[in-house]
Structure formats: structure tokens, C-alpha cells
Specification:
The structure is a single chain. The chain is mainly beta and 124 residues long. Helix content is 0%, strand content 49%. It is built from no helices and eleven strands. It has strands at 3-7, 10-13, 18-25, 33-39, 46-51, 58-60, 68-73, 78-83, 92-99, 113-114, 118-123. The strands form two sheets. Strands 2, 4, 5, 6, 9, 10 and 11 form a seven-stranded mixed β-sheet that branches. Strands 1-3-8-7 form a four-stranded antiparallel β-sheet, with no helix packed on it. A hairpin with a 4-residue loop joins strand 7 and strand 8 (78-83). It starts with a strand and ends with a strand.
């Protein structure tokens, strides 16, 4: 049974930092590309960042480029999202996703397994 679990969300002031973690079990982690998505109230889910199976390729949404850094540790079956210079508009539920064969790297339809999400709230 595949499980994907996010952690690390919380409340932070604008300009602050948070580090999200995503741990996957029940699958061969290194075979899966991974991504972070987010969804704010009343808005559609959007792709935030992608990392390839080996970690050699990363992609960021324009809205987070230069502020967020995605990484993974295949030995620990874990992916991370370091979020710096946070803005109130980053407030959302953040989801981790795993995809076996990914074509659209920031498209939610590319991913097979999802976590339940971790809330990030940035106060102004």
C-alpha cells in the first residue's frame, strides 16, 4: 500500500522560511518523479515545483522561482521543499505527489499518488 505523507507546514510571518518534507512508502522511491502542488481556498491546484527521479532536473513555477528549492534524498525516501522569503500569497495547502511516468511536470494529471497535504499560512 502506497503512502505519501507531508509534514513541516505551519504559520510564519512574511519574509520567513519553512521546510516541507514528504516521505513515501510502499513504492520504489527512486523510480518516481516527485512534485509539490498547492491549493489556496477558492483557487485551483497549481504546480509549485518538480524534481526528477535522480534529482538532476528541477522545475519551478514562476511565482516561486528564486525563493523555493526542491530536493530529494532517495536513501531516505524523502523529498523536501525549502521555502524562503515567504509571502502571504504563498498561503495554501501544500501537497506532495509521486509520478511514475511524468510528461507535464507541473500538471496534476501526471501524478499517481498524493499526500493529504500540509497547511502553510503566511501572515503579513
Amino acid at each position: 500500500q502506497v503512502q505519501v505523507v507531508e509534514s513541516g507546514g505551519g504559520l510564519v510571518q512574511a519574509g520567513g522560511s519553512l521546510r516541507l518534507s514528504c516521505t513515501a512508502s510502499g513504492l520504489t522511491f527512486e523510480y518516481y518523479a516527485m512534485a509539490w502542488f498547492r491549493q489556496a481556498p477558492g483557487k485551483e491546484r497549481e504546480g509549485v515545483s518538480y524534481i526528477s527521479r535522480s534529482g538532476s532536473t528541477t522545475v519551478y513555477a514562476n511565482s516561486v522561482k528564486g525563493r523555493f528549492t526542491i530536493s530529494r534524498d532517495n536513501a531516505k525516501n524523502t523529498m523536501y521543499l525549502q521555502m524562503n522569503s515567504l509571502k502571504p500569497e504563498d498561503t495554501a495547502m501544500y501537497y506532495c505527489a509521486a509520478g511514475r511516468y511524468v510528461q507535464g511536470v507541473l500538471s496534476s494529471s501526471s501524478y499517481n499518488y498524493w499526500g493529504q497535504g500540509t497547511q502553510v499560512t503566511v501572515s503579513s
